Amino acid sequence: MKQQVNPQLLLLLLPRFQEMKSQILTSRPSSTLTGTNLSLSAPLITLFTIQFRSHYSDTRYDNHNHNDRRNLEKLVHSSCKSGKLELDEALGFFDSLIRTRPLPSIFAFNLLFGALSNNNHCPAVVSMYRQSMNCSHHFRPDVCTMNTVIKCLCRLKKVDLSFSVLATLYKHGLQPDAHTLNTLLHGLCTQGSMVAAMELFQDILDKKHPFDVFTYATIINGFCKAGKTSKAFKLLKRIYDDKRIRPSVDCFNPIIDSLYKDGRTDKALSLFQDMIELGVVPNVVTYNSLVHGLCKFGRWKEAQRYLLDMLHRGISPDVQTYSVLIDSLCKEDKIEEAISLLELMIREGVEPDVVTFNSLISALCKSSRSDEAAQFLENMTSRGISPNIVTYNAMLDSLCKEGRARKALDLMEAMIDRGVLPNAFTYNTLIHGLCRSNQWREAIDLLDRMKDHNVSPNVVTFSILIDALCKMRRMEEAIAMFNLMFQRDIRPDVVTYTSLLNGLCRSGEVVKAEALFDKMVSQNIFPDILTLNVLINAYSEKGLMDKAQKLFDRIIELGGEPDQINYSTLIKGYCLQGKVDRAKDILEEMVSKGAFPNLLSYNTLVEAYIKVNRIDVAIVLLKDMIQIGLVPDHVTQNMLTIILSERALEDL
103 in a domain, yes or no? Predict the structure, then answer.
C-alpha cells in the first residue's frame, strides 16, 4: 500500500526539509555512527523522498513506475557516471534502491555512494550507509562499500569511527584490501597521528595484510608533512630492501619537497639523481619541487636547466611550474621577463591562476607601477579569475604609497562589491595612506568602519593613528588614543611608545616624555635605538647634555651600535652648548667606530667652529669632509663664503 501523508503536515515540514538538506551538507559525525546530527531518521528520509516525488511530477524514481530492477540500476549508473548528480536526486535514488525488493545489487549502492563522495557529500554517504544497515537485513555491503564509507569518515576527520567500520567489515566476513588500509593510514597521517599511523603501518607489514607501494607513499608523505624528513628517508630505504615492491615517484616527491623546505637543496638534487638511476620516472610534481626549491635559494640557472630537462622528457609544465618561475623572476625584479613568461604560458594553453597574477601585481606595485598592475587586475577578472585579498592589498598599498589614497578607497569599495572583505592589513594600509595625505577625518571614519566587517583594530592600527596625531601636534587626541588601547586590551609596542615620545618631545613636554619612557620600561617594553634617539634629541635641544650623553652610553650598554642619527644628534647638542671640542671628539669617535658621518654632522660642526672664531679647525673639517667623498651643499658653500670673508678681513 502506498504511504499517504497529510498535505498540511507536509507543508508544515517543508522548512525542516531544507534545514535537513543543509545539515547533510555541513554536519559532522558525532561520536558514533548513530549520531543524530550526522544521519537522517528513517521517518524524515521517508517524508523527504515523498516530498521529492511530489516535486518531480514524472515520478521517475518511484519504484511503482519502474518495477524492473535492472532499469533502476541503469538509471542510477547513468546519473552517477554523468558527474552531475545533485544531492536531492541522490536521495530520491537512495529511497528507490532501499525500497526495491529484491534489493538491487550492491554495485548500484556503491555507484551512488561513490558519486556523492566524489562531490564531497560525505555526511550524506555516512547517513545513507547507516540507513542501509538499519533498514534492511538484505543489504550486504562489500569491500568497495566499506572503503567509500571509511574514506568519507576520514575526510570528516573522524578516523576513530572509520575503524569501527573496519570492524563491521570483518564482522561481515570480508577482508580489507590495500585501499582500505591505505585510506585509514592516510586519515591518521592527515590528522597528525603519526605514532598511530606508524603502528598501523607496522601491523600491516607484520601481519601480512595486503599493501602496495601507496602504503609506503602514504606514510612517507605523512612524516614529511609532520616535518620528520629523516624518518621518511628511512622508510624509503626500507622499500629498497623490500623486494616485493618498487618505489614509485609518489615515494620520492614528498621527500624531495621536504628537503628543499629544510634548506637541504643539494641533498634533494642527489635524491632526484638516485630516483632517475632506479628507473623511476619523475612527473610534473617532482619538477615543480625542484624548480621551486632552486628558485627559492636564488639558483635560477639550475632551475632553468631542470625546466629544460622536464620539457625534454615530454612533461608539460603546469600552472604551478609557471607560477613559481614567474614569482622568482618578480622577486629578482625581472618583471618584463615575468610578463613574457606569462604570455608564453597562455600561448601554451596553461591558464594562469590567482597566485600567478598576484606575483606580477605585487611586483608591479612594489615598483610603483600601480597603473600597470591595475591593467593586470582587469585582465585577471576578464579571464574569470577572482582576485583575492592578497591581490587587493598589494594594489591598495601601492596606491597609498603613491599618495593616491582617494583612489585606494574607491578600490576598496569595488573589492567589497566583489565579495572580498577587507582584513586588518587592508584597513591599516588605508589608514596609514590617509594619515600621510593629511586626511585625518577619513582615517578615523575607517577606524569606525572596521567593526562593520568584524575586523578588530590592532597595535599597528593604533600606532599609525597615534603617529599621525603626534605629527599634527594634536597631543591630547594622541594620548586619548593611547589610553583607548589599554581600554581595548591592546598592548602598545615599542613603535607606539616611540611615536608618542616623539610627539611629546616635539611639543616641548620633555617631563611627560620621561614619565612615559619610565612606564614603557616598567611594562617590559625595551627601547630601541630610535626610541633613545628621540630623547637624546630632546635633551640636546634643551641643553641637558648630561642626560643626553647618559642615554647615548646606554645604547652601547644594551649591546647596540649607535648609528649616524645618534651621533649627529649628540654632535648638534654639544655644538648648541658651545662645547665644540666635545662635539669634535664625538665625530672622531664616530669615524673610529665605523659609523660614516653625514653632511649634516660636518656642517653643524663647521658652523659651530666658525661661531667661536676657530676658522683653522673649520677649514680642516671641510677638507676632511671632501676627502671622504661628501659633496658640499649650499649650506657648506655659505660657510665657505664666510670663511673666505673672514680671511680677507684678516689680510687687510
Answer: yes
Q: Do the Cβ atoms of 412 and 449 come closer than 8 Å?
A: no
Residue that is last in its domain, among 140, 170, 202: 140
List Cβ<8 Å contacts ≥24 apart for 39-46: 39/126, 39/127, 39/130, 39/131, 40/127, 40/131, 42/131, 42/134, 42/135, 44/16, 44/20, 45/91, 45/94, 45/95, 45/131, 46/3, 46/95
State how far the Cα of 16 lies from the Cα of 44, in Å rounded to an integer. 9
- Res. 496 pLDDT band, cuts 50 70 90: very high
d(CA 353, CA 341): 14
Is 40 inside a domain boundary?
yes
The label of the residue with cell 603502528 reads 199
Q: At what angle do helices 122-135 and 143-155 cross, to 10 degrees?
A: 140
pLDDT tens figures, 310-366? 989 999 999 999 999 999 999 989 999 999 999 999 998 999 999 999 999 999 999
pLDDT tens track for 572-629:
999 988 999 999 999 998 888 877 888 998 999 999 999 898 988 988 998 988 888 8
| Residue at which a domain ends, from 87, 119, 140 | 140
C-alpha 295/C-alpha 103 separation (Å) is 59
In this structure, what is the dihedral angle of CA atoms 474, 475, 479, 480, given to the nearest 10 degrees? -40
Q: Give the global pTM.
A: 0.70
What single-letter amino acid sits at 565? I
Would you state the cell numbers that stand for residue 21, as one nine-digit string? 538538506
| Alpha-carbon span 213 to 426, nearest angstrom | 47
Between CA 186 and CA 157 the distance in angstroms is 11
User: ω before 102 within 30° of 0 (cis)?
Assistant: yes
Residue 607 structural domain:
554-652
* CB within 8 Å of 392: residues ≥ 6 apart: 411, 412, 415, 420, 422, 426
Whether the predicted pLDDT of 152 surpasses 70: yes
Cα–Cα dist 535/533, whole Å: 5
- In this structure, are residues 330 and 363 in contact, taking their beta carbons and an 8 Å threshold? yes
Q: Please give the backbone phi and psi of residue 237, each rounded to the nearest 5 degrees, phi first.
A: -65, -30
pLDDT of 114 > 50? The answer is yes
Q: Is the pLDDT score of 546 beyond 70?
A: yes
CA distance 198 to 204: 10
Question: Is 581 inside any structural domain?
Answer: yes
Q: Which residues contact 284 (CB under 8 A, 6 or more apart)?
A: 310, 315, 316, 317, 318, 320, 321
Q: 420 and 387 in contact (C-beta within 8 Å)?
A: yes
pLDDT, tens digit, 9 for 90 and up, residues 184-213: 999 999 999 999 999 999 999 888 899 999
What is the reported pLDDT for 338? 94
Model confidence at 33, pLDDT cuts 50, 70, 90, reads low
Q: What is the residue whose three cell numbers read 562593520?
A: 452
Give the contacts of 383 (CB within 8 A, at least 6 positions apart): 351, 352
- What pLDDT sits at residue 163? 93
Q: Is residue 618 part of a domain?
A: yes
Q: How many domains does the chain have?
A: 2
Is-contact 39 127, C-beta < 8 A?
yes
